[in-house]
Amino acid sequence: MDLGISGKTALVLGGGGGLGGAIARELAAEGAKVAVADISAEYAQKTADEINGTGGLAQAFAWDLADLSQIDPQIEAIEKALGSVDILVNNTGGPAPSPVSGQSAQLWAEQFQAMVLSVVALTDRILPGMRERGWGRIVTSTSSGVISPIPNLGLSNALRSTLLGWSKTLAAEVGRDGITSNIVLPGRVATGRIKFLDEAKAKRENRPVDEVTAQSVSSIPIGRYGEPEEYGKVVTFLASQAASYVTGSVIRIDGGYVSSI
Q1: What is the spatial distance between Cα 111 and Cα 52, in angstroms, rounded to a whole number?
Q2: In contact, 149 and 194? CB cutoff 8 Å
Q3: Dihedral of CA 258/187/232/131: which sign?
Q4: First-to-last CA distance in the chain?
Q5: H-helix or E-strand containing 46?
Q6: Nearest in space to 12 (alpha carbons), one of 182, 32, 95, 42
Q7: What DSSP letter does each residue of 128-181 carry, written as one string?
Q8: Which burial class, exposed, middle or buried, applies to 79 when counting CB atoms under 10 A from its CB (0-12, 13-18, 19+)?
Q9: CA dist 133 to 23, 86, 137, 180, Å?
Q10: What b-and-e string marks burial along 86-102, b requiring 16 or more CB atoms within 10 Å of the CB?
């Protein structure tokens, strides 16, 4: 299937991480030019080097999303290097594990800016160009915790849920402009983040990590953790011309892990 995104410019946030890196590589494999943004210049460059080494076209951008003043200069640099952004993949890191109660107002404000306001402000910066060209894809990665709250990830559960209402509302506002807006939810995908969460749970419960991981895997109908590439392929489809009639949706990529309908 020709996904119709060859030559399009994609911006992948968190592109130096497990999920973001996989998304960037899959988009590049379909011919997209990829701006790999990450707070770590080293990790962003690693992903870009992998793409360029296999014949794709990518450029790394060190970017702290919590600093909203970086948005304009970063987008201008991307446009100069790769062209106007046609595909935006909003993929932000999550906060440290914590209960939802007893957190300071300052921490809530800091995490809201990093996880929510940064996504909204960046999308608003890119939307006018998408509207002018009559084509755009916005895919926002959140967490299965927005459907089934994950214990001890209180800040993440609450703040990422905000993005569902935002994305659905946005889809209705920009659909007639040829732009789609969708949410993707990872289940237990084998990334550094999942390893960190398993280790944190093991320490909290004074249990071996292998036992915690095995218990988690046993709750997944597919019987294993997902691979980052599997996640990247679904995001790439949603970012494609082939998914032009999919918008305002919430797509689970979880191997059946989330038990609710």
Answers
A1: 33
A2: no
A3: positive
A4: 30
A5: helix 41-53
A6: 32
A7: HHHHHHT-EEEEEE--GGGTSPPTTBHHHHHHHHHHHHHHHHHHHHHGGGTEEE
A8: middle
A9: 24, 9, 12, 13
A10: bbbbbbbbbbebeeeee
Residue type, 250: V
Q: For residue 218, what are its two tokens?
A: 């046993």
Q: pLDDT of the chain along its 261 residues, tens only?
A: 899 999 999 999 999 999 999 999 999 999 999 999 999 999 999 999 999 999 999 999 999 999 999 999 999 999 999 999 999 999 998 888 899 999 999 999 999 999 999 999 999 999 999 999 999 999 999 998 999 998 889 999 999 999 999 999 999 999 999 999 999 999 889 888 788 878 888 888 889 888 888 888 888 999 999 999 999 999 999 999 999 999 999 999 999 998 888
- pTM for the model stands at 0.93
Number of Cβ atoms within 10 Å of the Cβ of 37: 28
